[in-house]
């Protein structure tokens, strides 16, 4: 397995030397500056690749091995194959990536919002902070700030009462911060920042789109792009929903093992695979992570390794340390290593530590939510140590 690090570019505050010092050999990156839906060019990809791979003399080499992500435009999620111009642009981006010898592309199919958290600096008993999804705060946003039409139907009377109490205790700053956290797109998001009116309008555009229809649109998209991926030798990896359940009354269709099975059965192309994200999948108690790794072992080409801790209501959760929380990371790594040993060297699984606590010096710095250097360094060190131990006992 190859150890990777997500890098948001030279403006992100984490230099490439930090990636080297963390012990990673591979970089996960994307052209976040290109507007969603606009085709990437070979020259744009080559410029970023040169920045990553043209190491100064004496520095450890790095390789850009995974693109995370080429955003899928909203029109594709709403219209499926009918969004031909948007799909053609996505294929052009894929071909630009492949022309630069990058062979793994990660993507997701979450409508309107990408990964979602209500709190970006939830204080832990150690004094470090983590990202958190608080169900009552989310409901307060949905019901009382966004004021989504018919939102009450998605919440019980008890849920609505708790949400009202939370909202009534909020200051104007609390409301503004919560709105920013949910609506303004977190780092690496493949959806657009939205104002409240634009948020409502975007949700209304999904009227009548249920899980069956959204899945059909995903399958139509994959059926269109898989031949190009096969021709270019690119492996596509579908990231799970985060959190893996409906938000804002919208369907989500990459949340369980059965969701993935439906996609793989419909589009059996070997180029269509999974981004195995333990943190996202681990939020659901009914997701057996080692079993999912065994079931889809040959489809896993990229892994996000992190852990989450479900809280008392079963719907709230926060990011835990990588070897803690509700993810049995040792069992997960045992499955991934077993699959990796079966593969040719050029097909090895690439993984990265995903998210990390804000800790030590990062508490006093401006950092990208979820992606502080020190917390991820700790995570990668813990994962690397576990891998060494498992390989020694193999």
From TrEMBL:
Enzyme Commission (EC) number: 4.2.1.8
HAMAP family cross-referenced by the UniProt entry: UxuA
Cofactor(s) required for function per UniProt: Fe(2+); Mn(2+)
Keywords assigned by UniProt, alphabetized: Iron, Lyase, Manganese
Protein name: Mannonate dehydratase
A Pfam family reported for this protein in Swiss-Prot or TrEMBL: UxuA
InterPro entries assigned: Man_deHydtase (IPR004628), Xyl_isomerase-like_sf (IPR036237)
Catalytic reactions on record: D-mannonate = 2-dehydro-3-deoxy-D-gluconate + H2O
Source taxonomy: Bacteria, Pseudomonadati, Pseudomonadota, Alphaproteobacteria, Hyphomicrobiales
Pathway: Carbohydrate metabolism; pentose and glucuronate interconversion
Biological processes per GO annotation: D-glucuronate catabolic process
Similarity comment: Belongs to the mannonate dehydratase family.
One annotated GO molecular function: mannonate dehydratase activity
Function as written in the Swiss-Prot or TrEMBL entry: Catalyzes the dehydration of D-mannonate.
